[in-house]
Write a structure and sequence with these properties.
Shape: globular
Number of strands: 9
Distance between the termini: 33 Å
CATH architecture: Beta Barrel
Number of domains: 1
CATH topology: Hypothetical Protein Pfu-838710-001
Radius of gyration: 16 Å
Number of helices: 5
Mean pLDDT: 94
Low-confidence stretches: none
Structural class: alpha+beta
């Protein structure tokens, strides 16, 4: 799967919630996410622009756990990249396996995320521990599909919502790492 994603810093969740309601975006779900990021013993993911994480999501009484690999970004304007994800049952055992084969824990990123759907977009309002508020807009494509049209439509939707700057290509992990250097 190719994930075409753009995020921007926003001033206020309330303001964005109102604008999303105005265009007819539907609230989908709200969840807490904890992402534990790891670095490879072979290459430095910060240098290769890759990511490996264990994500635990909690929505009401339901908990889900995933391993996600994100490949290097493939353009200069967005966070478009290949993503491979699979569900697992035990984050601690997975973390232990990663450590045993040489992967190092980098940082844990925690956020509350409110999801919206609009047309073929997934929109999230992200309240990340240690960072300002952000909004992400994403479209998932099959491998081989042209991502440029999807990317343009994401920027058009941001403009429709009144956001024309504050775009960020770096991940929340990178933003936190830069903050605490």
């Amino acid at each position: 799967m190719i994930e075409v994603e753009v995020k921007a810093k926003i001033n206020s969740f309330k303001e964005m919630e109102e604008k999303l309601a105005e265009i007819g975006a539907a609230k989908a779900k709200k969840e807490f996410q904890e992402d534990i990021y790891f670095n490879s013993p072979v290459v430095d993911f910060a240098e290769t622009d890759e990511a490996l994480r264990i994500r635990t999501t909690k929505e009401n009484d339901e908990t889900n756990i995933f391993i996600t690999y994100k490949g290097p970004k493939i353009d200069k304007e967005s966070k478009t990249r290949r993503e491979i994800e699979m569900g697992i049952e035990d984050s601690q055992k997975c973390s232990d396996i990663f450590k045993e084969i040489g992967f190092k824990k980098v940082r844990t990123v925690r956020k509350n995320r409110q999801y919206y759907t609009f047309e073929n977009f997934e929109i999230s309002l992200d309240d990340i521990e240690g960072l300002d508020p952000y909004m992400e807009i994403e479209i998932a494509l099959s491998d081989g599909e042209d991502y440029s049209q999807a990317q343009n439509s994401i920027f058009d939707l941001f403009e429709k919502l009144g956001i024309t700057d504050g775009f960020e290509r770096t991940s929340y992990l990178e933003l936190l790492e830069n903050l605490y250097k």
